[in-house]
C-alpha cells in the first residue's frame, strides 16, 4: 500500500529553486533514505514535505498532519523535565503512552531531568522519543543520528524498524548507514534545479548556493 507519493515536486530556498522534477512513492512498512551532498536540498525537501514551507510545484499525496517531523531543533521545552516534555507532546497529539517511548530511547534514568541539562545526544534521544508519542504514520527525519553514540544509533534504528513493522513509513536524510533492510535510497543529485541561463536572477541564484 502506497503511503506517500510525490509527483513533479519542486522545492525552493530563499525564493530560488533548489530541487525539481521529484517523483517518488513510499510504501507502508518501508523507509526512504534521502542522500546527496551538503547543500543539495535534503533539509529543504523534508521541510516542504512536512508543510513547513510551500512547494514551488507538484503534489504531495498526504497532508502534514499525517507526518511527524524531527530536525536539529527538536522543539524541546528546556525547563520541563524529560517526562514532562513527553507528556506535553502526548497531550498535543492526543496519545497517552509515554512509558514505552522513555523505555525505547533509554530515557528512564533521565526522566526527571530538565531538558536543558541534557547532553546533545540525550536531547536528540528525547527528540526521537517525541516521534514515538506522536502516533503519526509518516516520520520525516533530518539527520536523526547527529550526536548519537553507537548504542543510541542502534536504539534509534530499532525504533524505526518497529515503526515500519507496524505499517508506518519513514523518510530519513542521513549520511550514515542505518542498516535498515526495509529502506530504499533516493539520491537527490539528479534533481538539482538548473540554474537560470542568464539574466538578473543568475547572481542571486549563485549567492543562494554559497
Ligand atoms: N536561508 C536561506 N536562504 C537562501 N538559501 C539558503 C538558505 N538556507 C539554505 N540555503 C541554500 O539552499 C540549498 C539547500 O539547502 P539544504 O539545507 O536543504 O541542503 P542539505 O542537502 O540539507 O545540506 P546539508 O547536507 O549540508 O545539511 C543550499 O545550497 C543552501 O546554501
What would your notes on this structure say?
Pfam families: ABC_tran (PF00005). This protein is an alpha/beta fold and 210 residues long. 30% of the residues lie in helices and 25% in strands. The chain has six helices and eight strands. A five-stranded parallel sheet has the order 5-6-7-3-8, with helices on both faces. Strand 6, helix 5 and strand 7 form a beta-alpha-beta unit. Helix 2 packs parallel to helix 4 (120-134). It is globular and about 55 Å long. The mean pLDDT is 90.
Give a topology summary.
Blueprint: E1 2-13, E2 16-27, E3 31-35, H1 42-49, E4 57-60, E5 67-70, H2 82-92, H3 99-104, H4 120-134, E6 138-142, H5 150-165, E7 169-173, E8 183-187, H6 201-208
Parallel strand pairs: 3-7, 3-8, 5-6, 6-7
Antiparallel strand pairs: 1-2, 1-4
Adenosine-5'-triphosphate (ATP) is lined by residues 13-14, 18, 36, 38-44, 208-209.
